[in-house]
Design goal:
This protein is mainly α. The chain has two domains: about 80 residues, 3-Layer(aba) Sandwich (Rossmann fold); about 30 residues. Helices cover about 60% and strands about 10% of the residues. The radius of gyration is 20 Å and the shape is elongated. The protein starts with a strand and ends with a helix. The mean pLDDT is about 90.
Length: about 120
C-alpha cells in the first residue's frame, strides 16, 4: 500500500487516520471533522475539500508520482502518531486531566471552608 484515502463527507476523529499514520502511510483525506487535527497538510498527508473529485484526484496523483514525497510524509505521519496518539500519550493525557480535576476540587473545597 502506497497511501491511504479517507473520503468521508462527515467524520469525527477517524481511527483509519491513526492506523494509517502508525503504519507509515501518507494520507489523502477530506477536510472535515477531526481530519485536519490529525493530518498536517503537506507534512503527514494532504487534505481536499469534500465533493471535489478533481482536487482529490490531483492529490492522489501527486503522491503516486512522487515516491520521495510519499516516503517523507509516511515517516512524518508515523512519528506524529507515535508522539501524539500513542497509548502511552493517551494515558498521560488522561492522567493530566484527572490531576487537574483533583486540583480544582481541592481549590473549591478549600474556598468553601474559608467562606463558611
Amino acid at each position: 500500500m502506497d497511501l491511504s484515502l479517507l473520503c468521508s463527507l462527515r467524520e469525527g476523529f477517524s481511527n483509519v487516520i491513526l492506523e494509517s499514520m502508525a503504519s507509515g502511510r501518507p494520507l489523502v483525506a477530506s477536510n472535515v471533522g477531526g481530519n485536519p487535527e490529525a493530518i498536517v497538510e503537506g507534512v503527514t498527508g494532504l487534505l481536499f475539500e469534500p465533493q471535489k473529485p478533481d482536487e482529490l484526484a490531483a492529490k492522489i496523483i501527486l503522491l503516486l508520482k512522487d515516491k520521495e514525497l510519499r516516503e517523507r510524509m509516511g515517516r512524518a505521519a508515523r512519528e506524529r502518531a507515535a508522539t501524539l496518539f500513542s497509548r502511552n500519550q493517551m494515558v498521560k493525557d488522561y492522567q493530566e486531566i484527572y490531576e487537574q480535576l483533583l486540583r480544582a476540587k481541592e481549590v473549591t473545597a478549600t474556598h468553601a471552608m474559608t467562606v463558611a
